[in-house]
Write a structure and sequence with these properties.
The protein is of the alpha+beta class. It contains six helices and five strands, in the order ααββαβααββα.
Length: 132
């Protein structure tokens, strides 16, 4: 089940899911208090069926160095957006899970990013029509 209720254009959804829509096209380092790396972690967890994944898998998929990952996970936990606990499958591994606040945050961020990206695409289409 996808967190986004509306059906955005597939390209817009992909840009937002990957954090490209806002973070690569904007000079700001954060959006609504969430930076790019935090967003990528939240988006990755949101894409998981049960909103949970092993820390190692998240780190590898979002391509974040171990020391950075540790600091980011701590920040996200302090913000109440994720939880961290020993994996039920393997006690030596750590699972990260989105909290309800994390689900709400990623939903709101995605909707805002979809809206802003959609506006950019519409503007580009209008400019293309003017050129033709």
């Amino acid at each position: 089940m996808d967190i986004i209720e509306e059906k955005p254009h597939p390209l817009v959804k992909r840009l937002v899911d990957n954090g490209i829509a806002f973070f690569n096209n904007n000079t700001q380092k954060e959006y609504k208090g969430i930076n790019e790396k935090e967003y990528r972690i939240l988006a990755m967890l949101a894409s998981m069926t049960d909103r949970t994944a092993q820390l190692k898998i998240v780190r590898e998929r979002v391509n974040i160095a171990k020391p950075d990952m540790s600091r980011i996970v701590t920040r996200l936990m302090l913000k109440g957006l994720i939880t961290k606990e020993a994996s039920a499958d393997n006690p030596r591994m750590v699972d990260l899970s989105l909290s309800q606040e994390g689900i709400n945050t990623i939903r709101n961020l995605r909707m805002a990013l979809i809206h802003s990206t959609d506006k950019i695409i519409k503007k580009c289409k209008m400019e293309l029509k003017e050129i033709e």
